[in-house]
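Q: What would this chain look like folded?
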Amino acid sequence: MPQLLPAERDLVARRSGVIAKVCKLPPFAPAALRLLSISTDSVSAVEDFESAFGLDPALAANLLVTANSPLFAFRSHIGSIRRAISLLGLDAVRSLALTIGMRTYISRSGTQDAIHSVWSHSIATAVIAETVGKHSHAPDVTMLYTAGLLHDIGRLALLSTEGRRYAEILSREHYDMEESLLLETLTFGCTHDDVGAFLCRSWGFPEALCDCVRFHHQDVVAHAGPPFDLVRLACRLGDVLDMGEVRCASRGGREVADLLPAHLQNCADLHPDHLLERILKMTSI
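A: My prediction, written as structure tokens:
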């Protein structure tokens, strides 16, 4: 086995140090993770959802607060998870629970200015991936929302463990995403998507979701699961809507329609104004 060059050994050591810190991060909301493993087609799905929320009364309470907010404007009060499921549906309740869990996780990360861009980009990617999947008749559209929401979890992990050093990378303007990823590698020995995939696997996320996290900046990945292409597309569309992960000088004047497949270019749900309205609502949760 060939020996590593000194610079290569240095990068390996930096990556090992980052991963060691990431291993000490608190786990993602256990109840939200449990919801990912429950099939909404199961005859016991409602009971299984209620049981999962029973593991985390705070998550259940936050979901009920959100369900009773002006975001949904139901005429009657929603006082239970079963009632929320009845009015919203299982898929919507799961998406809301994961969004609330993500917001709670973000609140622990510090460096609030940097977090805002990561949060808005994550929500944008989730909403766009779900919408494109719906109109493309993709299987398991809810999985697309989840994958979009969590695809940049590695950035939150680096903000939590590296603080200002990583916040500075997020705040500067790069020529393109490749330059940003190179700077991450030189600084930490790894990129945010590498860190995110490690974290998701340690939490027991489905492999297809881990692939979306690991490869969302790569064009061709032979073994990636079906959601991969749509999450990668949604990530790029978030950038076009000025909700990008980082500022890139090479972004140019692209429009949403420039990146959409031909059969979706005139889809009303994918008009920028409609997408922005939905994204801003979910960002406010």
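Residues 112-135 form the longest helix (24 residues).
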